[in-house]
Amino acid sequence: MKPTSPHIHPKFQLNGLSFESAEEILNFAEGLIEQGDDYEVSMAQFLEEWLNFEPHVEVNTSGSTGKPKTIRILKSHMIESAKATGAYFKVGVGTKALLCLSSEYIAGKMMLVRAMVLGWDIHVVAPEKDALVEYDNPYDFVALVPYQLYHSINALSKVKKLIVGGGVLSRHLEDLLEDLPVEAFATYGMTETITHIAVRRINGFAKSEIYHALPGVKFSIDDRGCLVINAPKISDAEIVTNDLVELQSGMSFKWLGRIDFVINSGGIKMNPELIERKLQPYLQLPFVITSEPDEALGEKLVLVVQDDGSGVTPNYAEIFSHLESKERPKKVYTLSEFPFTETGKVKRRQIHKILKKFRK
Question: Of 4, 63, 108, 298, which has the maximum CB count within 10 A?
Answer without folding.
Answer: 108
